[in-house]
Amino acid sequence: MISGKTTLIAHLGYPTESFKAPMIYNPWFDKQGIDAVVMPMGVKAEDYADVLASLFRLTNIRGALVTMPHKITTLSLVDEATPTAKIAGACNAILRRPDGTLVGDQFDGAGFVRGVQRKGRELKGARVLVSGNGGVGSAIAASLAAAGVAEMALFDSSPASSEALAGRLRTHYPALRVTTGSIDPAGFDLVVNATPLGMKEDDPLPFDVSRIAPATFVGEVVMKSEYTPLLRAAREKGCAVQVGTDMLFEMIPAYLEFFGFGTATPEELRAVATLAY
After folding, report:
1. Is the pTM of this model over 0.90?
2. Which residues does 80 contact at the CB level (< 8 Å), separation at least 6?
């Protein structure tokens, strides 16, 4: 029940139809007796800076979840960003401090990596390919580097995005071998689709699945459906996979701590979630 005392967490992005977070956070808040609500708010890119500034003048807002297409822009709109957000080049969380200043953080990459590790995959020394080097792809790349991967290949439809991310990775992880420009998944231990491909059933596959070995782990960020065409094709080859919502459930405990709402395990969150696809 929303009351006059309810704390607001905005969920900012556009379009909002595929948002899953309200169906996870809000049942959890209900179960825990926490008077807070995650509210989806559709904001187009051209309006985002003005809307964000106005939104955080509300007296009952604690923070915001940020998703496409605003994660990169948010980095320049907060008063302070964590090192993780700076490396990723994007923010997906904003906290308003008591003095009104805004701090931005980034949990996409941590959620993805924690999910892979909980499935028993060793990332230290691994070879990885990340396709899509915008906000979520950059965050995943930053966390994979922190997890100790040995080699990372980056690909994006905008080569400049790949080169910029490669530069940030080399600055913070000089021992990491970083290459750009190839989307060939052959020979990698982990391949990641961090593009929107898969949001529509008729989208082309983000990788040539015939070049993916059965031992390769395939990770997805698209949450439009649980098993995207990429993941279905990868499973048919015998690959272990990670669905997009795994990343979400793994990162939510970090979000809850960030916003001061305690913590939870992914299993506890899944038990009460009311996800619909």
Report:
1. no
2. 101, 102, 103, 104
